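Bit of a strange request maybe. I'm writing a small parser for structure token strings and I need a real example to test against, not something I typed by hand. Could someone generate the tokens for this chain?
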Amino acid sequence: MARFFLTDQNVIGEKVRITGEDAHHITRVLRLQAGDHVEVAFGSGEIGIVELTSVKSDGVEGDVVQRFRSYQEPPIRLRLYQGLAKGDKMDFVIQKAVELGVKEIVPFTSQYTVVKLEASAAEKRLRRWQRIADEAAKQCLRAELPVVRPLISFEQVLADLKEGPKDELVLLPYEHEEKQGIKSVPTGEWGAVSIIIGPEGGFHPAEVEAARENGAKVVSLGPRILRTETAGLVALSLVGYRWGDLG
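Reply from user aminoacidic:
Good idea to test on real output. This should exercise your parser:
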């Protein structure tokens, strides 16, 4: 059953209205009719079954006939800080990170970032990345739409760490870390885990130390050097296995 994401503006009591590209998908692609059913996600972790009552290309209406809590969202809040990468690598990372349960993706630039984006280009990329995240969330039946944040600097990442909640674990995988891996991080009762992945050029040692001073735990992902588009997905998988719902 197809799943569509709603905002509060689309819901009045037990009646919903679906517009835009989703309405086009229902009418022109799925060719559903009044009496058919679709799933909707309310953005709160709750899912609804909607019976369609009116199917038009400019808007689809229906009644919520069943509500239930979703099991597709991880028990911890996952955030990925991803160093800006070249080409379509960011597209790949965003798509797969959403499949692995991430709720927030924050692209950033640092000292060894190769890609340079003007403000207009960064805004265009952001719209593309959010669209990729939305499509991935629908494909893997997420109950909430993950958010891709605007591009920030590494200094802003550090500022985020200072203001983060007390129950947040921050991990920074680093190829020169030899002692501590994710499996050696104390279990704790973490409500959120943030992972910071460097760009193709990696991190400058001073950046790693600055992150450590601001509460990040520097960890190894193993003896092999991983590409930037691989490292975040490996880290998310390990975190999902240890503290989340993978495996």
